[in-house]
Amino acid sequence: MRTVTRLAGFAVGLAAVFGTTYGIGRVVDRAPVVEGRHDGDGAHATGEHDEATDRLPGGLLVSDRGYTLEPVDAPADEFAFRIAGPDGQPVTRYDVAHDKQMHLIVARRDLSGFRHVHPELAADGTWRVDTPLAGAGLWRAFADFTPTGGEALTLGVDVTVPGELTERPLPAPSTSTTVDGYTVTLTGSPQPGRTSPLTLTVSRGGQPVADLEPYLGAYGHLVALRRGDMAYLHVHPDGTPGDGRTRPGPAVTFLAEVPSAGSYRLYLDFRHGGAVHTAEFTVVAGTPAAGTPAADAPSTGGDPSGPAPTGGADHGTPGHGHN
Ligand SMILES: [Cu+2]
User: Fold this and answer.
1) Taking a C-beta distance cutoff of 8 angstroms, is the pair 201, 182 a contact?
2) In angstroms, what is the span from residue 25 Cα to ligand 1's centroid?
3) Can you give the pTM of this predicted structure?
4) What is the pLDDT of residue 50?
5) CA 58, 224, 235, 134 torsion-angle sign
6) Disulfide: which of 4, 31, 279, 319 matches 58 by Cβ 3.0-4.6 Å?
7) What is the b/e burial string over 292-306, where b = at least 16 CB atoms within 10 angstroms of the residue's CB?
8) What gap in Å lies between CA 320 and CA 251, rounded to an integer?
9) pLDDT 10s digits, 172-185
10) Residues surrounding ion ligand 1 at CB below 5 Å
11) Separation of CA 222 and ligand 1 centre (Å)
């Protein structure tokens, strides 16, 4: 709680709002750079468009490949936006991905307040949802969608909710957290530029949870946001329900590839007891992963610019399990 700033005259199409619903959300598989190098996933982040854009993580651009995310005026308790297409007109036709045509993810720029919701599409191309912007702050809104006839995109836009602004420090790196009575532990450490396994293990009341419920085709969905620019990464589960080898918990493994060293906030959605729960972790990528073998080639240091020294005191304990 270090800074208290008065945000006054920001001309944003939103009034101060305080969300009341806390439905927890869903997640879709797209972050082209991340996906493109997964085993068996094929390199689909190639094609006719700009190569530099293809290399960016999702969510950094408000406009990409002809599509633009445009917030529109809405009542204080609502968030509304359109996707303008290459012809400048609002897009009205979308493909369904993971049960939904549109996945809206929001978080403050200090990585607090993560929400994932599913807006409703009006005939004129306006998307509306009970606002997920739960209080004052500098927010980033990500629209994750596939326009019919186009490619999957994640566009991001800044939204300011005026009021007393409190910057929340990023929680320290941790390998264990609790949510809704569940304890979730994290094993593994993401490594820049290569795929590494991250395993999340769910327990409740000291007992392993071995009957996780499929949620949008997986036993868990994981989003990572990079500290500093909120690069949006979707991390793939390793295995799917019904494939003959994937168990319904207590452990869910993801194959993560982060684009750089640095701090990330992880948001794990899992379903149990008929409800979706979101567990959050801070992780630091780029520290040597002692005891955590990567999924592929041995490390050669990767990006010459990283990993940067982190001072040793503020990183997690990669490779250590928890009980
Ligand atoms: Cu969703």
Assistant:
1) no
2) 6
3) 0.73
4) 54
5) negative
6) 31
7) bebbeeebeeeeeee
8) 15
9) 999 999 999 999 99
10) 26, 103
11) 12
